[in-house]
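#random but structural
TW: two for the price of one
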Amino acid sequence: MLQDPNSNASFSYVIYHPQSGQCIQVSNDKKDMFMGNCSNSGRWTHDNDSTPIRMSSTGLCLKTSGEGLMPSLSTDCFGPQSSWRAISNTKLHLATITQDGKSLCLQVENSNSSKIVTNSCICTDGAPTCLEDTQSQWFELVETNTL
């Protein structure tokens, strides 16, 4: 349960991956991100599109490190690599912009891995000719008020 009508806790978000039914978790040392049970996942804040996604417990921001690399948690919350927005017609791609203007999306590394990376966003322009499977890049911020 992610929302409890009887809870007095403030709202935050989990970063949910619909294909797997899991959420992004962060290791205790804050160096690794991986998919795991949503009840144990990190809680995040996000004001609106093109703003940082911050870990509620630390205030550190989710930041892209480059294509094919795991995102990191950083104190640098004001650069374009720390500004995230939902893109595509479905709004199921969370993307940031690299220093050279390229959109990178959160992605599960592969079907045999729970590791999170950022890669070039695929099929986000709504073109009906795109035949690639985009589900590995489907992530959404889901509001929660449970602890």
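TW: number two ↓
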Amino acid sequence: MEPTVCPWCQSEIVWDEEIGPEETCPHCANELKGYRTLNIALEGEDAEADQEELDEDYEATEEEAVDLQRIWGSENESLSSLRTVDKYGEDHDLFAFEETVEAILDEQDEVPECLHCREYMLHAGTQHVSGEGFQPVNAALIRGPILQPPYELNVYVCPGCFHVQYNLAENDRLRMIKSFIHKKE
């Protein structure tokens, strides 16, 4: 039987000839036969006419309509509520803020995404961990601690929701890799 490509995740699906075609994608669990395209007009004078035309072209079942409302409603609410910086727009020039953020991001070597709102994060600095207040965990497989102080952490701050994240500095990443390799041998 010929392989099929999931329209949602673009994974190739090979059907078992005895069982027959899959109804849902085994990778992303989306319905394979329910793939549809919706065109949504965001602004414009003809928005109502366009929406009526869309409604005529696509008549969702009641179950699909509830699912779409749940997905769109929760996504729009969560993204807008996570972007804390927007509440300061009345008192401050957020356009100038965004321009500055973009310029800073262009200079960074690493640009992680915020885990909360998916904005790109600004490298705010480094934090030195000397060992005071840090209790390392010993892993039996490597016969020692996973991370041995002292080490440096990169500190990132999100310009959208102001959450702070840390990751291990480059030199300490390499030190950790080498210690895992040497301790296991």
